[in-house]
Write a structure and sequence with these properties.
The protein is of the alpha+beta class and 223 residues long. It has one domain: 4-Layer Sandwich (Deoxyribonuclease I, Chain A), CATH 3.60.10. The protein is built from eight helices and ten strands. The strands form three sheets. Strands 1-2-4-3 form a four-stranded mixed β-sheet. A hairpin with a 3-residue loop joins strand 6 and strand 7. The radius of gyration is 18 Å and the shape is globular.
Length: 223
């Protein structure tokens, strides 16, 4: 069975017609969103682009005394032939609304997850603790799991794992070459089957982009 999965940090944007147009063009079957406001979620739900959805803030509404950062959540949207059976949060996390787990079925049971790691600049060690906790949870799961994530890591994310740079030593437990879990990164699997694409990007800076080569918060010191 072939299907399309997308992940997008909407960064607390207000929903616009251009967003609906983009999603129509992408034509994705399963969509994981991060930093979603209630307004964005409601507007996207109302477009009818998807058959079902789940929203972390519906499972854990922000408390009155909590700040703005707790008023954004994660969402998962899907369409036929996928059906939703349940949705839950990873309650052991400091910010459980940033880890949405949705059980779905299309003849095969699986989990579709949307994760958002708190940035270390704001939350310090909560960031690596969150990454490790997600990795440990994934390691305990059997069956099929897909997740989209805004990890705020690594410091430099490169198709070749040995060229990655990390902010915290626990980050590779989820995102590294030998993580605690058995899942594998889709981009790296894609490039492994197309070595010429990776070589072409190495040789030509004209092809440099976040999607087809690597991305980093700051340019490498040698370039």
């Amino acid at each position: 069975m072939q299907f399309r999965v997308s992940s997008w940090n909407v960064n607390n944007r207000n929903f616009r017609d251009t967003h609906a147009e983009l999603l129509r063009k992408v034509d994705t079957d399963l969509l994981a969103l991060q930093e979603v406001s209630p307004g964005f979620y409601q507007e996207l739900t109302g477009t009818g682009l998807f058959d079902w959805s789940a929203f972390s803030l519906s499972l854990r509404p922000p408390q009155h005394e909590e700040g703005r950062s707790r008023r954004l959540g994660c969402a998962v949207f899907g369409r036929s032939p996928f059906q939703i059976y349940s949705a839950q949060l990873l309650e052991e996390l400091p910010f459980p609304e940033r880890a949405l787990i949705v059980k779905i079925n299309s003849g095969v049971e699986m989990r579709m997850c949307s994760f958002h790691t708190p940035p270390g600049a704001s939350w310090g060690k909560i960031k690596p603790q969150t990454l490790r906790a997600i990795a440990e949870w994934l390691a305990k799961q059997s069956g099929h799991t897909i997740f989209g994530i805004d990890a705020n890591a690594p410091k430099t994310d490169h198709p070749m794992f040995d060229q990655n740079q990390w902010w915290w030593e626990d980050e590779p437990t989820l995102l590294g070459h030998s993580p605690l879990h058995e899942l594998r990164d889709c981009l790296r699997l894609y490039l492994a089957e197309r070595p010429r694409m990776l070589e072409g990007n190495r040789e030509s800076k004209a092809h440099w982009s976040a999607c087809n080569f690597s991305h980093t918060r700051q340019p490498p010191k040698d370039g």
